[in-house]
Amino acid sequence: MKVHEFERIVGKLGMETRNSSDRLAWLVHDGVTVVRTRRSHGNSKYLPENQIRQQLKVNEDQFAGLISCTVSKEQYIQILIDKKIITLKPKQESPQSKTPANPS
Amino acid sequence: MAAAEAAIGRLKVTQAGGTTEVPPIACKEGGASQAYELPSQIASEPAGELVSVLIMTDLPQPPRPTQVKLGVLKDPQLRLRKPITLDLSKEEAEIIVNWPEISEFGQGATTAAAIDDFGQVLRELHGQLFASNAQLGEDLQHVKQVLAEYIEPRGR
Fold first, then answer.
1. Could A55 and B91 be called an inter-chain contact, meaning their C-beta atoms sit closer than 8 Å?
2. Residue A96: pLDDT above 70?
3. Phi/psi at B10 (nearest 5 deg)?
4. Of A14, A18, A41, B143, which is the most buried if we count CB atoms within 10 A?
5. Is the Cα torsion angle A55, A58, A60, A61 positive or negative in sign?
6. Among A residues 27-66, those touching chain B with beta carbons less than 8 Å apart
7. A68 Cβ partners below 8 Å, 6+ apart?
8. How much is the pTM?
9. Which mean pLDDT values do the consecutive 10-residue runs of chain B (156 residues) have?
């Protein structure tokens, strides 16, 4: 895996990043951090594709799709929902629905 | 004098034909030193067979272990409760150590460098997951639980 491919995924998914001893990337969905990955600094550094793929919780096809842009962010979020990495919050009832029906 | 002679002892020479006792040829008064007439050396006969010595410079490397254990965390504030077993592999020129339980890895040119990198990553991950404002999904909550199982603050 190349550095520009890693950066393409990070950019496409809108991951938050921080440069530390490594370049860290986090996907935050609805205020909750759901997956994280990282890569070493330096363009010539080898990036272990399998390990990064596992951190992103996708299979090989899905990972290839993330790199080649055939898997969008929305599709990726759906993959994480299907895998229960993202748990959807129960929708709050609107105040109107709690209002008792007008007896008249 | 008798005691001195006993202290000097006798020289024994072991050869192919057996062990022979060599008598002293001179003995100073007082027995402080003595010389021995050693048997003449006999050149060994050539065996008639050539022995070839093969010097191998490219010896096959012993097989790399598939797992290593991280037993110490180089951190002034954190320490390991128990060793972490890491899968070890080589990808291209890099050594990769992987902790499949939390999908975390380290890499380096050598096994030691990869383990050091993993330790650094682990400390960083611990800091992020245990930050007071961290809002974590279920998977990262699990990672946090695993880290708590293996890592504790020093001084406890």
1. no
2. no
3. -125, 150
4. B143
5. negative
6. 29, 31-36, 38, 40, 46, 48, 51, 54-55, 57
7. none
8. 0.70
9. 48 62 59 66 72 76 86 92 95 93 94 93 94 92 96 83
